[in-house]
Design a protein that fits this description.
The protein has 290 residues and is of the alpha+beta class. The chain contains six helices and 13 strands.
Amino acid sequence: MLGIDIFFLILITALMIIFVTRYNRRRHQKAVQVQERTWLEVLWITIPLVLVLAMFYVGWKNYIPLRRPPKDALEIKVIGRMWDWQFVYPDGKVATMLYVPLNKPVKLNLYSPDVLHGFFVPAFRIKEDVVPGKNNFTWFTATQLGEYDIFCSAYCGMRHAYMYSKVKVVPTEEFNNIMASLGSASSTADADAILRNNGCYSCHSNDGTKLVGPSFKGLWGAKKTIITADGKKQTIVVDEKYIEESILDPNAQVEEGYMPNVMRSYKGVIKDEDIKAIVEYFKKAGEQQK
């Protein structure tokens, strides 16, 4: 490729010097109409076309093997949602940091339940769109131990800049130990983990900060002014029924000051037992604050 570059550099430079010298203004003070030459026009269309197609073929031929992951690659589902990353391993284990074994090919199946995101690891020189409703993937083999930044490369809303995680490359034995210690996506033992794994903290804070949705701080037993689906304003006290409905049918009652039709329904996504665990979590937090 370097030889081709040098060849065209010399050719183009030589032609520029020839044209500047031969057709400069001093030698041709009076403009002359140049008659068309069909053979010349065909020549300067055909030659660039052949060259571009040849370069495309070489690039495509090298791109296909790079795009195809090895058959023994470890497959991990990457979920990008507003505004965090979640990594689901083949055995159902879930993490918010991407753990991968050293020198092992890894295929990442990219999924977004909400808007367009971009999975970007600068150190690995990989960047792939995470598109709602489209199956996409990328793959890599990490050859050095360490931690590497993961960013979202597509603007995805108010907290886009906080959609950040890391790839941690570890020896195989350490990777197996980490996998043994992780919880599964269906674990109901920790309601905080359920909220985190379903991206709830992307839109709801735990410290009273106003984000896309209302904060979880002081939620249980709080008086809220809500707008119903038919536009009526009501005052309610947050209880088990309200929390369940907010998860399963979030647009039926929207707290005043927040936009409707932003949160999607989690019916069929969060299990009934997990919803009960979330309710107990908020109830316990509310009792502790009294």
